[in-house]
Amino acid sequence: MAALFVAVMSVPNLYCYITAYALFCAAAATDYYDGKIARERGLITNFGKLFDPVADKVLMLAAYIMLMSVPSLRIPEWCIVVIFAREFLIMGARALAASDGLIIAANQYGKIKTTIQIGYVLVFLFLTITLELLRTFPDLVQVQPSHVALYEFYIGQTSRGAIIIVAIYTVYSGLQFARMNWHNLNLNNIS
């Protein structure tokens, strides 16, 4: 679904944004229910513990890369670099632990981080759809061009503030991961 999301988001128009929104919702929902069903039925596997977070990251990183191409969202590049860095460092730490036979599942901070990241995408992709609706059908909604420009300005300012908060929490969750798993990762013996 991440590949389809990227393909559809590559065409910046109202209908593609709506399709991308539906794809992202479906991907997020199936990920949630996959985990819930696995926990309820006792089907949790080491493969799932290791690769479910990777699949989450692929979807989220694809979403953030594609949202950066939406000018009205005004996403600072450094926020995406920070988010990517945290994700790659955690994936590396999990791979390091897995090489020693230790599987580190997502903790509460990581789950909150994922929820916040998904929330950002859902809210701001929806607002982008609304903006494109206003641009595409101004007569239908009877809106003045100056109101559309003002709406776009507020979306940009809100998006910028929200993605900074997402980036800060993403770093915080990474620090918590390191704190909670420092001993498991054997980081005290680095020479």
What does this structure look like?
- The chain has 191 residues and is mostly helical.
- It has one domain.
- It contains seven helices and no strands.
- The radius of gyration is 19 Å and the shape is elongated.
- The relative contact order is 0.13.
Name the features.
191 residues; mainly alpha; 7 helices
Brief synopsis:
The chain has 191 residues and is mostly helical. The chain has seven helices and no strands.
Strand content: under 5%
Instruction: Return residue spans where pLDDT drops below 50 for at least 5 consecutive residues.
Output: none
**Major pleated sheet:** none
Figure out the total of helices. Answer: 7
Molecular shape: elongated
Order of helices and strands: HHHHHHH
Q: Give the terminus-to-terminus CA distance.
A: 42 Å
Mean pLDDT: 88
Task: Provide the gyration radius in Å.
Answer: 19 Å
Number of strands: 0
Overall number of structural domains: 1
List the helices and strands and how they pair.
Elements: H1 2-9, H2 14-40, H3 46-68, H4 77-99, H5 108-136, H6 138-141, H7 145-181
Helix pairs in contact: 1-2, 1-3, 2-3, 2-5, 3-4, 3-5, 4-7, 5-7
